[in-house]
Structures are given as structure tokens and as C-alpha cells.
Design goal:
The chain is of the alpha+beta class and 84 residues long. The chain contains one helix and four strands.
């Protein structure tokens, strides 16, 4: 393997190592935010354990207690959570 290839491999590996923790931190913050939104709307959840993004400000949140909610911003700009 040439010196140039080794450098590119090192750059790629570094980029992956730096990007992965940032993505994980974003996921943790998103789940915390979704948990707070669902709780503020008075719906049972406990804690959001996973979230699937459908679009901008549009998620399917799965709670620790098994409930699933579609959390999105409606046309009036209000946050809505509908049980799935």
C-alpha cells in the first residue's frame, strides 16, 4: 500500500471516529426532547427509547412502556403527538 493510500485510510478512519459520537449525542438529545414533549402533552410514556425520523420535525417515538407516538409540528405550528 502506498503512502498516499495510508494517509487517506487514516483520514477516513479519523472522520468516522469523530462523526459517530456526534451522531450518538444528537440521538440522545432528540430522545430527551421527545420524552419532554410527550410528557408536557400529558401522554403516558416514561422515556423515549428510540425515534425514527420521517421528516423535519416529524418523528415516530417508541417509549419504554411500549407506547408509540407520531410527534410532529402541525400546520398551525403546534407540536402534536398522536398515539400509533
Amino acid at each position: 500500500m502506498g503512502t498516499c493510500m495510508k494517509r487517506w485510510a487514516l483520514i477516513a478512519a479519523t472522520a468516522i471516529c469523530v462523526a459517530a459520537p456526534a451522531h450518538a449525542a444528537d440521538d440522545a438529545a432528540l430522545m430527551k426532547d421527545l420524552t419532554a414533549v410527550i410528557a408536557l402533552l400529558g401522554l403516558p410514556c416514561g422515556q423515549v427509547v428510540s425515534a425514527d425520523r420521517k421528516g423535519e420535525n416529524d418523528h415516530i417515538a417508541t417509549c419504554k412502556d411500549g407506547n408509540r407516538y407520531h410527534v410532529f409540528v402541525n400546520a398551525e405550528g403546534r407540536v402534536v403527538a398522536r398515539k400509533q
